[in-house]
Design brief:
By secondary structure, the protein is an alpha/beta fold. It is 35% helix and 21% strand. Strands 2-3-1-4-5-6 form a six-stranded mixed sheet, sandwiched between helices. A six-stranded mixed sheet has the order 8-9-7-10-11-12, sandwiched between helices. A three-stranded mixed sheet has the order 13-14-15. Helix 11 crosses helix 12. About 10% of the residues have low confidence.
């Protein structure tokens, strides 16, 4: 059964994301001293005593202003309340009650959700009690003084919160597949997420940079659970100033690192840019499975050859991920969106795949019989003794040879192609480690294997 949800509500810049971080015990939401940094609703798992639940951060609520993203933020907050078992209304103990707080309190009284008032920025216990007393006028019950930064007072708040959650149910463990949706700004990542879930889960806007946090959404299909992670658009480093966008891009890179599969979204109108090429290299470097999503395909004038010309051009320019599956979609119309998860399943399965040593050596034997290792001018020839798979996510194979320096890059690529042709590994990078007989070669390769699998072990 799903975990109960607790919605975090409040004005801009009262410290909602800081409190979310404290309750969830992580530092993943963007915390920056600027109103409106959090726009979409962002889910994070939390627990207290023997209970698990989800906290959902929402954008700052302002009711008397309909400019920019504020109407969309209100819609996100209302959606969060609709699915929540309880809400925590965050107010600022340093400023005291404001007209905005009173407006939100009146709005919350109209919602069918129990509400707790948390008075944030009460770093001093003695002064915190006095600060909290001012918020009785909101008419929402006892205000609890807390400090999102230091954690003081959150225990009492959570004790009261547990009384509002539904009775504990046995949770069904699911082997979820983590899917990061990544790409440049404004290529349609949030639109794709909304097309998956059938609702405005993330704010969609033609303005670049709408999504700033990495946003998790759970989707179930055919008995499988997918954690979809929408990420901030990743621009060129030189174009990014320190602040919310800087933090959002760092979250996007972390989302790629913790994903099983990356949906790499490209704009069919713009084609492949230099930044897309760098992102492809990042995905391969992190060892993540990948599906190339060519979005806005409905906006392209086509004939019988168009799709083939596009695919050839994209694969030639994104050679880092030439092993990835490719699909042409329209997130706006929903065209082929339902087929994406089938490709995700393939990529995730191959990413976790393990092949026996005997099968690996059969492939090697066949490959060597067709194309023997090169011989140097001095008469030294490379020899491959045997191979074995040493890890998964991504699949990594160690090849034991007489001297790694005797194998050219071309021959190494040939061996990788033979593995892919014989064994598949569709949609996932494949690591080959060439281990020499010398002890220092063995030690050096072992360190390389450890670095390549570090993401998995985390």
């Amino acid at each position: 059964m799903p975990l109960p949800i607790v919605a975090i509500i409040g004005r801009p810049n009262v410290g909602k994301s800081t409190v979310v971080n404290r309750l969830a015990g992580v530092q993943e939401a963007i915390v920056y001293d600027e109103p409106g940094v959090t726009r979409d609703r962002t889910y994070k798992p939390a627990y207290w005593r023997d209970r698990e639940f989800m906290v959902v951060d929402t954008g700052g609520l302002v009711f008397d202003d309909d400019t920019e993203f504020l109407p969309l933020i209100r819609e996100q907050a209302l959606t969060a309340l609709a699915e929540a078992s309880a809400a925590i209304f965050i107010v600022d103990g340093m400023t005291g009650p404001t007209g905005g707080d009173l407006e939100i309190a009146e709005w919350l009284r109209q919602q069918p959700v129990p509400v707790l008032v948390a008075v944030n920025k009460c770093e001093s216990v003695e002064h915190g009690i006095m600060q909290a007393m001012e918020f009785w006028e909101l008419g929402l019950g006892e205000p609890y003084p807390v400090s999102g930064i230091h954690g003081s007072g959150t225990g009492d708040l959570l004790d009261e919160l547990l009384k509002l959650l539904p009775p504990q149910e046995d949770l069904v463990e699911s082997d979820e597949i983590k899917v990061a949706i990544a790409g440049r700004p404004n290529v349609g990542k949030s639109s794709l997420l909304n097309a998956f879930v059938g609702s405005n889960r993330a704010i969609v806007s033609p303005i670049s940079g709408t999504t700033r946090d990495a946003i998790d959404t759970l989707v179930e299909r055919d008995g499988k659970t997918y954690r979809l992670i929408d990420t901030a658009g990743i621009r060129k480093k030189k174009s990014v100033e320190y602040g919310p966008e800087f933090f959002g891009i760092n979250r996007a890179f972390k989302a790629i690192a913790r994903a099983d599969v990356v949906l790499f979204v490209l704009d069919a109108i713009d084609g492949v840019t230099e930044q897309d090429q760098k992102l492809a290299g990042r995905i391969e470097e992190e060892g993540r499975a990948c599906v190339l999503i060519i979005n806005k395909w409905d906006a392209i004038e086509k004939d019988n050859e168009t799709i083939y010309e596009y695919e050839r051009d994209i694969r030639s320019r994104l050679h880092f991920v030439d092993w990835a599956e490719m699909i042409f979609i329209s997130a706006k119309t929903g065209q082929r969106v339902e087929k994406i998860l089938d490709l995700v399943n393939v990529g995730a399965e191959q990413h976790r795949r393990r092949v026996t040593t005997s099968v690996i050596n059969e492939v090697l034997e066949d490959a060597i019989s067709w194309h023997t290792p090169p011989t140097t001018r001095g008469g030294r020839q490379g020899k491959i003794y045997y191979g074995t798979q040493v890890s998964t996510q991504p699949p990594s194979i160690a090849l034991f040879v007489n001297d790694p320096d005797l194998f050219s890059d071309g021959y190494r690529r040939y061996i990788e192609r033979q593995f892919r042709q014989s064994l598949g590994f569709t949609g996932t990078p494949l690591r080959l480690f060439w281990r020499g007989k010398k002890l220092r070669d063995l030690e050096r390769t072992e360190r390389t294997v450890n670095r390549a699998t570090r993401v998995k072990t985390k």
